[in-house]
Amino acid sequence: MLLWDWMAWLNLHTPTVMVIAPAIVLFVWQYSASKRRTAYRVNIRLDRLHRSLELYAAATGALLREAGTADGLSPAEHATLVDKLLACKAAPYVTEDLLAQITAYMMDEQDGTRRTLLLRTLERETERLMEERSLLLRRSEKPGWGWMIVQQIQHALPFFFTVCLFILVVWLHGSLNPSEQMEDERWAALYVWSRFLSCLFSLLVVYPFLRGGYRRTASSWLQRWLAVTIALAALLHLAGGLTWAPYILTLQLLIFLAGFRFNRSKPRRSRPFVGHYFEEDELSLLKEQISDLPDHDTDQR
Known about the structure:
Structural class: mainly alpha
């Protein structure tokens, strides 16, 4: 009896079942695929962090042994130090500052100031990567209540993104069908396509930032706000008619192009030292240390 009732319900609601059943299958598939892809990306990042920390730790240990040896390193130990420093250049998460410090130290290995700067840079980069690794492990293994909800929402975003694309394409198809109202407007097709491209552009820009998973940089917050601004600009379509669509699309493109201007990296010649950034307190401390060093010309005399 229950089987017949179930079959009768399917026959009665055939159009609804044909829509809901594929949607549920698509949701489950995209949700599980998102979880696997996220776990894979986390494992890749952890492996890269572990590899970088291993190389930094080996180079730091060799530099500390050199600093603690009054007579200097033996030729074999010096060759090992050089190899470890060169290996740091191949670290997955090596920065431009560290590369510049390694190059400067290799050019003048007898300068103690170079070694001090290189050690400080290595320690700073090691601490930064350790914090990043701890945060990544905590979010993946012991997430808090809020972050756990955020993760579930992020895994469901691919399905909602697909639904938005489907609705947008259906709207475009319906709006481009010939009708009496559309035939009276000369620029109707331009308005429709402008709104379609504007909404599509908003989805493509904001979706990667909602999904997350990228490493934070100095310009990450600015990129996120630019993406949110472009997405919010698409909401202007709700307030205005189709005639506003080209102007809204133009505004979004201008915001997108402005992002290239605001996200440019700082030129190397404007840095205090080539390849290295200093805070004001660190720069003043470095100047005091350099002023306390003996003059090389006086020593040679």
